[in-house]
Write a structure and sequence with these properties.
5 copies of one chain form a homopentamer. Chain A is of the alpha+beta class. Chain A contains 9 helices and 7 strands, in the order ββαβααββββαααααα. The first copy, chain A, has a 7-stranded mixed sheet, sandwiched between helices. In chain A, helix 2 packs antiparallel against helix 3 and helix 4 crosses helix 6. The longest helix of chain A is centred in the C-terminal third of the chain and has 64 residues. Chain A is rod-shaped, with a radius of gyration of 35 Å. The termini of chain A are far apart. In chain A, about 50% of the residues are buried. Chains in contact: A-B, A-E, B-C, C-D, D-E.
Chain lengths: ~325, ~325, ~325, ~325, ~325
């Protein structure tokens, strides 16, 4: 792949749904997409301003679209510049509970003649390319199919992350209501952050995909409307789950506070019960420690042992009673 | 029913509102629905990819619709592929309070010529088939009537579950405000989960049924619009109840926290009252345990008994006072 | 009223705004409404399926509308079946604070030729009939006027209930912030339930009355639009109040929790202050109860009384100090 | 002003933007507004049913509008009866923090030929009349200008009240987070009530003024649209502030609960520290109060003073330590 | 710059995208904008009523627009007076965490022939002027470009402030969940106030910029629509973040309350553990301080030391146990 710059990961021409053999230089790609019949798919990763400038010149991209492509941190959206669509998508990964959500970004320039995919952060597209190249019947519809395949792939990723978060929420619920005295407030809060991150990737995209599926854009042939509506449908499922997550987490935070209060009360009662039991010997012993001249019990033969037994009996009675009412 | 595969539970042709006698093979069913006059109702349960593939070929179903039919966990929706409607519905059961809500799924392919019902999980339709076959006047309107009957049946199920949840909420309310020291935080939270599950089945369907009732789809004859609006109306009732449930449960969680706090305060005051009563003998006994040379009371004849009586009197006075202010 | 069945409470023909003398049988009423010039008002209470079946046949009501009329527990709505409007309204009463809100139901079938009022539960309409019969000028506009009069009556009832609830909320507010140590959490929760019940009666009706007031239905002559908009306006006022109630009650629940916490803290400090005061004699007495050979104070003439005075002095000083900082 | 009834506060004819000299009887006013060229401004305060009946007859007001004018407690709105607009506005005053918000009501009947202002409660309009009479250029546009001037005046009043409430909220915030142990829960709640009152005056008016500013009504000449949009703009500002108030107060209530909890914890730790310090002498003295035959320390020359010093030393050490960790 | 009044900071004529050399008097500027070809950019800072009156006369501004320009504290909006747009924008700065958000105001009068920028508070525009003058190709589109450049600059400022707040929120989160016993309730509340301030600057502007970007106004040439949609897009990003902030802060406040409760419980348990340990010597010593005639232990040779050891052993055992269960 010597003729491709470092930022270009793949560049191919597709004709009648099939990939033309061989690699292309940027200039050849630009020429190919101006000629009839096929379309170009150019894959770029984190380009510098100068690198992308040359692509923009070759393919005639709008100044503002170019600015978006270089600076990441765009909002998911679809926008039409001339006859080229710019679709911005967030990719989301969530490898394990410890690391939170990883958010990447894809910028897709789509036209009747080309699709340029610009990737920032994670979100490898080679698996999409492979899958799409196995369907020449679909590819024959042009670059819109690639857009569909990428969106489908990304939205599947959202579903996986939602699934992971679902598991995490169930784990945190178990912890909230477990007999063990854990306080998962911090985990709940972190989950809320994750869910918000996911929400901010999904919600604006919903609107964007809806616009595409309604057939508003010429770059997307009408035959694909069903496909984009399918993606929209999957997005709505994820959105529904995300909204449910938010409600659940908010309730979990409140329920957790209740559990913490209940446990505090249990601790307080347990402590108090022991204090009460301990107060008995002190009290009784205090009475027989008084220095009155006339205290008949003091002179009994087994007075001491009687009192010790009495103390033990009262303590045991209290213990048994506290056990019964659930304070111990 | 030898000629039907394992996944096909029933397959019948209806002509002029009446069921044609005898079972059909898939091929016969496909032929019947292509001929004039009648329509086919094919009932399928959890088909494998290959099994459903053959049905899809026979009836000309869209690739994406087929994918939906095999993978469960769709969102309730109505979608038009060519001239075939795909309606996805969640079935909901709630046998008892211990097991939470059971969610199944129905995918309904409806056309002027056939209705294919694909069931995942619970949601037996044989009772619907029986009821519908008793109304040949309605059945003569075509497969749309079957769609209506199934939706009506499913939505009735939502109403039953809402009723059950209503009872559970009232039980939990009684527990929150009961004199017994229970903490139903976990039950409230579980109810919130159930209500969310129900909400996620009901809310998207509302929109879908609204679309059907507005007569947008050719597969549904206009004579049935009133019927679908009736279903829509029942759905709205359930939605209204579900929204009320959410608000009530959120308040119940908060009220429960208050009750827990109030009880903690009551416990603290009760404990403190006993501690105060127990402090009296210790204090008094401590004083008469001092070793001063000149403590006249020590030498009184009945000093000891006087002090014991004094202690008892103070303790009883305190006890009576604490009772009166409600601390004991 | 011998010719009327038990469920029919009144049946009259109105011509040119005036009631025709004498009672009618169902058949006569049906005939009257098919003839020109006047209209029939038929009042029915909790009919059985068979009873209402005969009415439906006589007046040509739709199968689904009939089903609604027999089963109560409909949602407030307006629906058009053929050229007959079905309006469902909840009646609400709130006699006193102990019993919560009583909800009844009215189903009104309105046409150019008749109005059939079906009542479930409370919601006597005889006062409406009297009032309406005093306005022949309005009655000449047909059955729509009766619909208006009933809605006006029902919505006035909502306003009364809202007024009652307002008073209850103010009472509960006073209790929350009173110096007495009450915990009105349960009352607040019950008020939330009542407000929700009222909301569920009012909110769907708002939409329905709006539709009527916009003159969408032929059964309602345009001259009455102002009147229905007036009802709509009153409904909006009630809705506004209900929404304010919800917000207030939610805050009251939270404020109540704060008050409960504050009182708990006050109790804790009061208890602690007394514990501190009681600890003084115990501590001092303990010191003079030690058995050292050389404790000069023990041999003083007034040692005992000095120590007693000292204890009293310290306790009083503590008491005064705690009073000053507000712990006692 | 002998010819005016007690409820009529002012009645004038304006021609070419100027007030015609002299007072008018009701009949003269009615006649003047039916003649060409000028318009009548009639100011009425809390009329009785009979009093207003005569005005309604003279100016041809709608039955329902009249009912509104006599009963106060309407919702802010704009409604068209024939060619006469009825605008209902709430006036709001907030003289000082102790008395809460005072709500009055203005009902304005506006026509090409007259404006009738009916006032209930506070909301003097004489200053508006003076200001408006200084602008004959505007007055020449007819009664719509008076409507604008009144709305502008009322909305300025909302702004003033919002300003006062802002100050109160800031005061309450300072109290919530002050070192002093105040609990402003009741003030926060009262502020929420005030804000709700203001909201219920402002929010429905927003919609009404929007309708007027869009030029929907013939009674309002198009030249005034900019002016009404200006009023709408000010209303939006107030609404924005009111919404911010609601959010702030809700957070303040929650923050206050936290502060109360934190202070409770501080108190508990302070109390516990003193209890711990007091436990030392009791414990040590108890040991030397034991009656063993062989306790060498008891026979030391300075045993007693040594132990006293020991107790003092331990207590001081504890005190110093508790100071350091912030418990005292 | 002698010919410019104190409030005028810059005044220039642009022709074909280039600045005409030399300063202008107000009269010259007015004349220039009435002549063909170029446009005037007049920059004004906090003008007095009289100062702005002269500008308004020269450029023909509407009475109400002028009133807005003098009084600050407008709401962000776009409004059309005749053919002159008035755009009101809030500028926001947030230099450091201690001082909260600083809000200024810009009022922009835009026309085909001129743009007048009126600044209240912070929000220097000289950097915008420099940047815009470097793009004569854009400037040739007229004053709309200046409006775009200013909005772009202001919205970038919002993004910076959002970034700062994001950092502050993360700092506060760390504090909430840190092991140190801090209570950042006040900081959370202050952040909520800041976020609300930012929200009230951003949210109304969103709507205003949307209107501009839709090409509704003649003063803005269609070529600039893409640019305004780009600004709108950035505004949406900020709005999305602000909404996320609000949700996070609300959860943080709740989580903080939980943490405070958990710490209170920890303190209570620690205190109780020490109290329990201290109760042992008192209790045991009390027993051996009793004055019974027959207490064999008292006469043992090493009774005293045995008991002291026993006390120490029990205390150590308790200490070890409390350590193990995490109470100490």
């Amino acid at each position: 792949m010597a003729i491709l710059g470092g930022m270009i990961v793949d560049c191919a021409v597709y004709e009648h749904g099939k990939r033309r053999a061989g690699d292309l230089s940027l200039g050849q790609a630009g020429a190919a997409c101006r000629s009839d019949g096929g379309f170009v798919w150019l894959g770029v990763v984190e380009p510098s301003a100068e690198e992308f400038e040359s692509i923009a010149r070759e393919f005639g991209l709008h100044e503002l679209a170019v600015e978006d492509a270089i600076k990441a941190h765009q909002r998911p959206k679809v926008e039409l510049f001339g006859d080229t669509l710019l679709v911005v998508v967030k990719t989301v990964t969530h490898p394990d509970a410890d690391h939170g959500i990883g958010v990447g970004e894809l910028l897709l320039f789509v036209n009747r003649d080309f699709i340029i995919t610009v990737r920032h952060g994670e979100g490898e597209l080679s698996s999409v390319r492979e899958r799409v190249e196995r369907r020449p019947d679909l590819l024959a519809h042009g670059p819109g199919v690639v857009l569909y395949a990428i969106l489908d792939h990304v939205v599947d990723g959202y579903g996986d992350v939602a699934q992971t978060i679902d598991g995490e929420i169930q784990a945190v619920e178990r912890e909230v209501f477990s007999a063990e005295r854990t306080n998962p407030a911090e985990q709940i809060y972190k989950l809320e952050r994750e869910v918000l991150d996911l929400y901010r990737a999904v919600a604006p995209l919903l609107e964007a995909v809806d616009e595409i599926g309604e057939g508003r854009f010429e770059a997307i042939p009408d035959e694909l409307d069903d496909y984009f509506r399918d993606v929209h449908d999957h997005l709505q499922r994820v959105t529904g789950r995300v909204n449910a997550f938010r409600e659940l987490l908010s309730s979990a935070l409140q329920a957790n506070l209740t559990q913490v209060s209940v446990r505090q009360n249990e601790d307080m009662r347990k402590i108090s019960a022991w204090v009460a039991i301990a107060a008995v010997p002190t009290m009784v012993a205090g009475i027989y420690g008084m220095n009155f001249d006339h205290m008949p019990e003091l002179h009994w033969r087994y007075g001491y042992f009687t009192v010790l037994s009495l103390i033990a009996a009262i303590c045991l009675a209290l213990y048994w009673r506290f056990k019964r009412v659930g304070w111990l």
